Amino acid sequence: MAAMDRIGLDRIEAAAKLVGPAVRRTPLIAARVLAERTGVEVRLKCENLQRTGSFKPRGAYNRIANLPETERGRGVVAASAGNHAQGVAWAASTLGIDSTVFMPIGASLPKLAATRAYGATVHQAGETVDQSLVAAEEFAEQTGATLIHPFDHPDIVAGQATVGLELLEQMPDVQTVIVPTGGGGLLAGVAVALEHLAPHVRVVGVQAARAAAWPASLAAGAPVALGGMSTMADGIAVGRPGDVPFAHVADRVSRIVTVDEDAISRAMLLCMERAKLIVEPAGAAAVAAMMTYPPAELDITGPVCAILSGGNVDPLLLTRLIGHGLGAAGRYLVLRVTISDRPGSLGRLLAEIGGTGASVFEITHSRAGAWLAVDEAEVSLTLETRGPTHRDEVIDALTGTGYAVRVQD
Predict the structure, then answer these.
(1) Residue 318 shares a structural domain with residue 401
(2) CATH number of the domain that residue 294 is part of
(3) DSSP 145
C-alpha cells in the first residue's frame, strides 16, 4: 500500500473530532460469565448501543462530513444488508444530504424500515451485499452521487478507528481486542488505532465460518472473493475483503478465527441472559470466539475487550435464534419416544420425564407411522433441560426404563 494510503494517527484524531460530538460514547461493561469460562478478565464494548444500533455511523459520518460541498449537493449512495444502510442514512440526514441505499432482496424488514425512517431512499437489488454494491456503483455513475463504501475507504476506516480510541481510554490495561469481521473496516480501524497508541495489544478478528473470506485472502497475500456464503450473521457476510483494510489487517492483526452458526446463536443467548444485551448474530461473533476457543488456542492474554459490533436483529429471527441457541447450549432436547398405545402410557412417560426435572415445552402424540406396530404410538417431545449434562441424564433415564428413544437434532 502506498504511503499516502496509510491511515496515520492524525487522520484518526481528526475523525474523532468530527465523529465524537455526533455519535455516542458506548459503554464498556464487565463480562463475568466469560471471565469465569476463560480465566481472564473480559469486557464488552457495546457498539450495539450506538446510534442506529451498530458501529457503522462512525465511518459513515466521517466519510460524508469530509465530502466537499460540490459532492454533497449530488447526494450519496450506499449498499448494505442493513447496518451500513442505517449509518449512511442517519449520517446523511444529520448533515443535510440526500441519500440513496441499495439493499439485498432478502434484507430484514425492520432494517429496511429503519433505513427509510432515517431519511434514505431505499431500493432492493441482488441477493447479496456484493450484488447490491454493483447496483449502487451503477447509480453513482448515472447520477453523480458519491458512493459511500461500507468499508473500503480510508475515511471509513478512520471513522471506525474511533472505537479503538474509546476503548483504550476506557480500558487502558487492555491486552487483547477481539473484533467481528466482514469487509474489514472495523478490524482495520481498531488495529491501526492500537498500532499507533498501544502496539503491544493483540488484535484478533472473527468471521462466520460460512462467510470467511479473510483466511484465504491472507494466505494469498491479497483479497480473494468467496464463491458463496450462507450465514445468519448478515452483518459480516462479505464475499471479499476491502483493499484499504487489507494491508492494515495483514500488517497488524495477530490472527483471524472462524465460528460456526451454533456458536453464534449460543453467544447471542449468553449476551441476552447474562449481560442483558440484545446483540445481532454478527455482533456476537467476538463472544462466540471466546466461547469456542480456549485463551491458549487464541493465543490471547487478559484483560480482553470483545467488541459487540451491532444489535439490529429482526424480532422474528431473534425468536428462532433463541430456540436455536437453547438447543445448541443443550437447553432444549427434542425426542421421539415410542410407547404402548394403551390407557395410561402417556401419563407414565410424562411422569418419568417429570422425575428427571425436565420441563415439557411441546408435545405431539401420534398413532400414524409405518414403523409403528398396531399397539404402539409415538410421542414427539420438546423438553427444556438445565444443560448438556442434564440433557444426557434425561436420555439415560428414559432408555434405562425401556423406552425406545430417538434424539432429534
Answers:
(1) no
(2) 3.40.50.1100
(3) P
pTM of the predicted model as reported, rounded to 2 decimal places = 0.84
Helix axes 185-197, 243-252, angle to 10 degrees: 40
Residue whose C-alpha is closest to residue 267's, from 41, 53, 33: 33
Enter the C-alpha cell of residue 401.
426404563
Angle, alpha carbons 349-350-351 (nearest 5°)? 90
pLDDT greater at residue 305 or residue 337: 305
What is the 8-class DSSP label of residue 159? H
Mean pLDDT of 156-167: 98
The one catalytic residue in 80, 99, 108, 309 is: 309
Round the average pLDDT of the chain to a whole number and report it: 91
Q: Which of 83, 113, 147 is the last residue of a domain?
A: 147
Q: Percent of the chain, pLDDT > 90?
A: 64
Minimal CA–CA distance to 257: which of 299, 225, 298, 302? Answer: 298
Report yes or no: 358 and 381 within 8 Å, Cβ to Cβ.
no
Q: Which of 56, 111, 217, 265 is catalytic?
A: 56
Whether 276 is a known active-site residue: answer no
2 has pLDDT over 70: no
The mean pLDDT of 229-236, rounded to a whole number, is 88
Quick one: cell of 5?
494510503
Is 17 in the active site? no
132-136, 254-258, 363-367, 368-372: least confident range: 368-372
Query: Is the domain of 165 the same as that of 27?
Result: yes
For the chain, the domain total comes to 3
Q: Which residue segment(s) compose the domain that 385 sits in? A: 330-408
